[in-house]
Design goal:
Layout lengths: L1 H56 L1 H9 L2 H10 L2 E5 L4 E8 L4 E2 L8 H10 L5 H8 L2 H6 L10 H4 L11 H15 L9 H4 E2 L8 E2 L5 H8 L3 H8 L8 H4 L3 H7 L4 E2 L4 E10 L2 E10 L4 E8 L1
Parallel strand pairs: 3-4, 5-6
Antiparallel strand pairs: 1-2, 2-7, 7-8, 8-9
Length: about 300
């Protein structure tokens, strides 16, 4: 009996020690991952500083800041869309595009709601989708006199979901996933959101008509896909409204949005590949102010 008790006690101690070692190894692994991520973040922050200094001193961008010419900006984006760099331990790719080529989804308001509705209707998405979107835009919609009463179960399922404005593509993905489950409208998956919308608390920013995609043209003018493609093909050649050759209805629709023919602002993406791991940095760069903002790190 004593031998059995001693053996049992030994087994218990072995189990306790095994659990302790396993827990310790897990904590060590987690700590190692944290250190690795912190090191990566530090390196990427240093790289970001170098890229910002490079942009501030770029002769091409200094010329753009002085020229105020849409042709010069278009030529820069066409010739410098992607720049590969080789560092000692990392491969880096810089990508540039116009920061005003997409429509901020938070632009949705009473004035242009009909155009949003028509666009989604053409893609077989019901009117309930706009109601769900507006529930997530309390700051903007309150200015337009909306009641901000929640008619969907979105916030019942996601009580901590941000509801002042739609802040990012990931934020919209949560909304879209809920909408598809709740209303069964799978056609929403076919909407090219990556070409259509930008996000954040800047709905009043102008969109640059020299860079918007056919999908944006289709929404803001309420035109066919063919007409939208034709307008997009004139990119880089628009200086005035006359250059667009719009019908009176199209002109009326366009006035519901803030637009420009020259917006010297870049959307910069830095892709870093190190030891088969890819991380990205996104930010907007104001060419005239020589300033970056809205920084996003994806490690």
């Amino acid at each position: 009996m004593r031998t059995a008790i001693a053996l049992l006690i030994t087994l218990v101690f072995v189990m306790i020690i095994s659990v302790s070692i396993g827990y310790g190894l897990t904590q060590l692994k987690n700590a190692s991952n944290v250190v690795s991520e912190e090191k990566s973040l530090y390196q990427n922050t240093m790289l970001l500083d170098d890229v910002l200094e490079m942009l501030k001193g770029s002769p091409e961008l200094l010329h753009l800041a002085d020229s105020n010419a849409s042709e010069d900006l278009y030529f820069f984006l066409q010739s410098s869309a992607s720049l590969p760099l080789k560092l000692s331990d990392r491969d880096v790719i810089l990508s540039f595009e116009s920061a005003r080529s997409k429509l901020n989804i938070n632009t949705l308001n009473k004035s242009n709601e009909g155009l949003f509705r028509s666009y989604f209707s053409q893609h077989m998405i019901g009117e309930s989708y706009l109601s769900v979107l507006k529930e997530c835009m309390s700051i903007n919609q309150a200015k337009e006199g909306y009641n901000n009463q929640y008619t969907s179960a979105l916030f019942d399922e996601n009580p901590e979901l941000f509801r002042d404005y739609i802040a990012s593509k990931k934020h919209l993905d949560i909304i879209n996933d809920f909408y598809i489950r709740e209303y069964g409208e799978t056609h929403l998956k076919e909407i090219p959101f990556e070409k259509l919308f930008s996000y954040g608390l800047y709905p009043a920013q102008e969109i640059d008509l020299n860079y918007i995609s056919p999908d944006v043209w289709e929404l803001i003018l309420d035109v066919s896909k063919e007409r939208a493609i034709m307008l997009a093909q004139g990119a880089g050649n628009y200086h005035t409204l006359d250059d667009l050759d719009l019908s009176s209805r199209e002109q009326k629709n366009l006035k519901r949005f803030r637009t420009t023919f020259f917006a010297p602002e870049l959307l910069v993406k830095i892709s870093i590949v190190q030891e088969k791991k890819v991380s990205n940095i996104y930010f907007r760069y104001d060419i005239k102010q020589k300033r970056g903002y809205d920084f996003v790190f994806e490690l």
